[in-house]
Design the sequence.
């Protein structure tokens, strides 16, 4: 309870201090706006700003586009060169596994096919 009362007093003191400072400033300086923009300042503002900016030539823009394109091609090429050999190795391993007779035996055991069914499947193809 005491804490709440104390915090309310502190807030009231801060508010009173702000009001006093604002009153002092308004008496000393007044309420009028002392900052003014010269007449016609914004009439040609955009034109003056564009004149002060350096010109960008089309040559720089075109060169930048070519550099981006070359960098993209380089990235794709590096990725392709690093990924393709691994895939070929994987494909070769799968092909070696498929030609191995033990793989075929495991597949036949898994499918629970006997010799008659195997011959029937081969005859259909």
Sequence:
């Amino acid at each position: 309870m005491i804490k709440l009362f104390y915090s309310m007093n502190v807030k009231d003191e801060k508010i009173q201090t702000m009001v006093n400072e604002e009153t002092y400033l308004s008496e000393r300086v007044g309420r009028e706006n002392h900052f003014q923009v010269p007449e016609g300042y914004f009439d040609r503002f955009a034109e003056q700003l564009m004149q002060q900016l350096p010109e960008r030539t089309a040559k720089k823009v075109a060169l930048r586009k070519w550099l981006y394109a070359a960098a993209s091609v380089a990235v794709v090429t590096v990725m392709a060169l690093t990924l393709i050999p691994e895939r070929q190795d994987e494909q070769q391993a799968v092909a070696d596994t498929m030609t191995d007779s033990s793989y075929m035996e495991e597949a036949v055991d898994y499918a629970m096919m006997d010799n008659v069914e195997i011959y029937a499947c081969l005859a259909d193809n």
User: Anything to note?
Assistant: Confidence is low (pLDDT under 50) at residues 1-6.
